[in-house]
Write a structure and sequence with these properties.
Blueprint (H helix, E strand, L loop, with lengths): L1 H14 L9 H11 L11 H29 L10 E8 L4 E3 L2 E10 L7 E7 L16 E9 L12 H7 L5 E4 L11 E4 L5 H19 L6 H9 L7 H10 L9 H20 L2 H6 L2 H20 L3 H19 L5 H15 L7 H17 L8 H24 L1 E3 L2 H25 L4 H21 L5 E3 L7 H12 L9 H12 L10 E5 L8 E4 L4 E4 L11 H12 L7 E4 L4 H4 L2 H7 L5 E3 L14 E3 L5 E4 L2 E7 L18 E6 L2 E5 L5 H10 L8 E3 L11 H7 L3 E4 L12 H9 L3 E4 H4 L2 E6 L2 E6 H4 L8
Parallel strand pairs: 4-6, 12-13, 13-14, 14-15, 19-20, 20-21, 21-22
Antiparallel strand pairs: 1-3, 1-5, 2-3, 3-4, 5-6, 5-7, 8-9, 10-11, 10-23, 11-12, 16-17, 17-18, 18-19, 23-24
Length: about 775
């Protein structure tokens, strides 16, 4: 079972790394299944050969199974002819509606039209009205008719970034869009068709919604009500982003949702209760042993809790483990811990082969594997407190390589934080949250919130410690398996020879640095931030960020979602300079998060003197034309704006954008912000000799107000890079502008189609690469 499960997992993982979906997925699955009867001969061959045969066959089965399911899921797609057009759909609200600043977001199961529109889509309803309006509030399980505009799944693709398209695929969402405002056309008015569709999934979501409302009503405007909601029904989006940062810094994020530990606690509680009651009835005990009744009760309780929690991967893993143990008790067969874990792994991947794309999958199974590794097969039974500390230490060390791969950070205070948080959250707060959500009582929620008050104060103190969090570059791939082997060796029982060698094997994970520019080289990455701009420029020893992308909401922007993860993954611990070209949200929206998240030596901009970014305590100056410097054999010079604008048009924020010229032995770059034709004319008049460039970051995202024919002809770039969002509402880049650059002989690159664009200027050559090409997966839309 163990080799079969590992082989199946390897096959699934290999499929999810493919740039193109194999067309023979279903056939491969059938071929692998056809080979299984031949395993009757494995008893006549040496065990190593038999084990290898099982592993290879199940790897082929896993690959074929995942490919077959992927074909089925990708076949449910949006007709390209309907993209961006008004479509009237009817269906059922299929998730908990999630309020945000400008409206509400929810999943929607489409019933009509039956063709052309995927079965499940994600919708945003902007300016959604309060209850009592003619439309009313959206609730889970309601049937509605909407006029919507849809688009295919599409997200930003960046090194070390979140893959939004993979996340949508895992949730079986094959289109996203928004509800059109009423009055646009006949039949466009949103209409509720049915108050509740009586089907099990919708009834469960309605119950979850009622529990969320109960908690919010009992704890209005209380800071940790969202945590209690997450613990009770698994709605992690109820937790404030700032609280998630605190949990990540202290290593307790796994507790603030439906974790495996919570499911185990619920299963154990109900099993113990049923066992105690069962043993008091002679008739029941004679009809069925109390142990079997308790096992069944524990599994049913775990299953019910997983249903209301949204069935996340950690909950699934625990449910299947509880099921394997319960089945073993019913059948009277003993089973090892590793077989239980392997069975759960196999079950999770059969039901959801895309779960390997989720960090929770790896962290959940790895944590349990580490616990089994340090807790089973020992000849001594230490005091429970010693064992508890040993497990906390082992989990922190054992998960460190995965945490560094997934997030490039690991909490150093995690053992202390978890030692306090696990008993409080799992055995006190979670039962109180469940009781408060189900029972007509508010005091369990009040008590749970009071306990969270104390816990959050402790976590805040731990998070404030100067060395609470270790952050570093993304590990070089070959160092990860070596580190995992070393840590497994390091955590062997005391007395095992040369355990210290495990630490030696783990050293390359920290010591081997990713590639970096050499002297005289210039590396530049235009990040994919949607409709906005963020460019990271690196020389041998210095890093500059030109703009920081847009802000998406009060808590989310390109700075904390794209720029900082990229810098951390590349091993950049500080910025030598940040340039904010001008005061537009699509260029400056992420700058505040960057200033908060990493040290910045200097800030250059064209911002007003009273702008909030200039009050952040960073040395700042205006990006006046003529200001220049040299780093590591690479020259930098601002060539715009001039001393003072000559007209009102030139005084506009766009035309005051900082224009930066970079000259390296391998080529020249021009970064132009959002300048328009008046600023282009000034540059052509004042400094035409400084304009020619090998790479141009096209002005104003390719708008019709920029890139005049004279300007394009003078620069004559080899590569013209358009930083634009997919199907953006401005229609950038304009077709006439694209044609202008093509006529000038430029190779056109677009971030909406290519993802992040990486350029490496070496003295001998200029190398260009795009993230969608380098890290392409079969689900990425072209």
């Amino acid at each position: 079972m163990r080799l079969a499960a590992l082989g199946f997992a390897l096959g699934v993982c290999l499929l999810q790394q493919q740039p193109v979906l194999p067309g023979f997925g279903a056939g491969a699955a059938l071929c692998a299944l056809a080979l299984l009867p031949a395993f009757g001969i494995i008893r006549r061959v040496p065990p190593p050969v038999a084990g290898a045969a099982v592993f290879v066959a199940f790897a082929a089965l896993g690959f074929g199974w995942a490919a077959a399911l992927a074909h089925l899921r990708l076949a449910d797609r949006l007709d390209p002819e309907l993209e961006g057009r008004d479509v009237v759909v009817s269906g059922v609200v299929a998730s908990l509606p999630q309020p945000f600043e400008r409206g509400v977001r929810f999943d929607f199961d489409v019933e009509t039209p039956a063709t052309g529109v995927p079965g499940r889509i994600s919708l945003s309803w902007y300016a959604e009205p309060p209850a009592g309006d003619s439309r009313g509030a959206v609730r889970a399980g309601e049937r509605w008719r909407f006029c919507v505009r849809l688009r295919r799944p599409h997200g930003s693709v960046n090194p070390h970034g979140f893959d939004y398209e993979a996340w949508l695929l895992e949730r079986s969402i094959r289109a996203t869009g928004y509800v059109r405002a009423p009055g646009r056309e006949e039949g466009a008015e949103p209409e509720r068709l049915e108050a509740l569709v009586v089907r099990p999934p919708y009834l469960i979501d309605r119950l979850r919604e009622a529990a969320r409302a109960k908690i919010l009503d009992a704890l209005p405007d209380r800071p940790y009500a969202g945590v209690l909601i997450a613990l009770a029904i698994g709605d992690q989006r109820a937790i404030d982003p700032g609280q998630w940062q605190l949990f990540a810094r202290t290593g307790v994020s796994h507790l603030m949702s439906i974790s495996g530990l919570h499911v185990t606690m619920i299963a154990g509680l109900f099993a113990a209760l049923v066992s105690w009651c069962w043993r008091r009835s002679e008739r029941l005990a004679l009809a069925l042993p109390a142990q079997k009744a308790a096992a069944l009760a524990g599994f049913v309780a775990a299953f019910a809790y997983c249903l209301v929690s949204g069935f996340a991967v950690p909950a699934q893993r625990t449910l299947y483990m509880v099921g394997v143990v319960a089945a073993a008790l019913w059948l009277g067969r003993a089973t090892s811990a590793s077989r239980v874990l392997a069975s759960a792994l196999f079950a999770v991947l059969v039901l959801d082969p895309w779960s390997v794309l989720s960090p929770g999958f790896w962290l959940s199974f790895a944590a349990v594997a580490v616990i089994f590794h340090v807790s089973t097969g020992r000849t001594t039974n230490p005091h429970w407190l010693v064992q508890w500390g040993r497990v906390q230490w082992a989990v922190t060390v054992g998960l460190a390589p995965l945490m560094l791969v997934l997030f490039q950070q690991v909490s150093i205070v995690s053992p202390l934080a978890n030692a306090v948080a696990i008993p409080l959250v799992s055995f006190v707060v979670t039962p109180l949250a469940l009781a408060g959500a189900v029972l007509p009582l508010d005091w369990p929620l009040e008590l749970g919130h009071a306990i969270l008050d104390v816990l959050m104060a402790i976590l805040g103190w731990l998070a404030a410690l100067p060395s609470a969090l270790w952050q570093q570059h993304a590990p070089v791939p070959w160092t990860v398996p070596l580190a995992l082997l070393g840590i497994a060796w390091l955590l062997l029982p005391r007395g095992f020879p040369a355990r210290w060698l495990g630490g030696v094997l783990a050293l390359p994970l920290f010591a081997v640095l990713p590639a970096a520019p050499a002297a005289g080289e210039l590396w530049m990455t235009v990040l994919d931030v949607g409709q906005g701009l963020a460019v990271v420029v690196r020389t041998e020893k210095h890093v500059l960020l030109y703009d920081a992308g847009p802000a998406f909401s009060a808590f989310a922007d390109s700075g904390n979602r794209v720029v900082l993860p990229y810098l951390r993954g590349e091993g950049v611990s500080k910025l030598d300079a940040l340039v904010v070209s001008h005061d537009d949200r699509d260029h400056s929206g992420g700058a505040g998060s960057v200033l908060e998240g990493t040290p910045v030596d200097a800030l250059w901009s064209s911002l007003r003197a009273d702008h909030a970014l200039l009050l952040a305590g960073v040395r700042s100056a205006s990006c006046a034309a003529g200001l220049g410097w040299s780093w590591d054999g690479v020259s930098f010079e601002f060539i715009h704006p001039g001393a003072s604008p000559r007209s009102r048009r030139e005084a506009r924020a766009n035309n005051r954008s900082c224009v930066l010229r970079i000259t390296a032995p391998g080529g020249r770059v021009l970064l132009t912000g959002d300048i328009e034709r008046s600023a282009e004319r000034e540059l052509l008049r004042r400094a035409p000799e400084l304009l020619p460039a090998d790479v141009l970051i096209v002005p104003h995202h390719g708008s019709a107000t920029s890139s005049s024919a004279e300007f394009v002809k003078e620069i004559a770039p080899r590569y013209a890079v358009f930083a634009v969002g997919y199907r953006n509402r401005f229609g950038h880049p304009r077709e006439e502008v694209l044609e202008r650059y093509r006529e000038a002989g430029s190779t056109v690159l677009r971030t909406d189609a290519a993802g992040a664009v990486e350029m490496r200027f070496a003295p001998e050559a200029l190398r260009i690469g795009t993230q969608r090409e380098r890290a392409r997966r079969y689900w990425h839309e072209s």
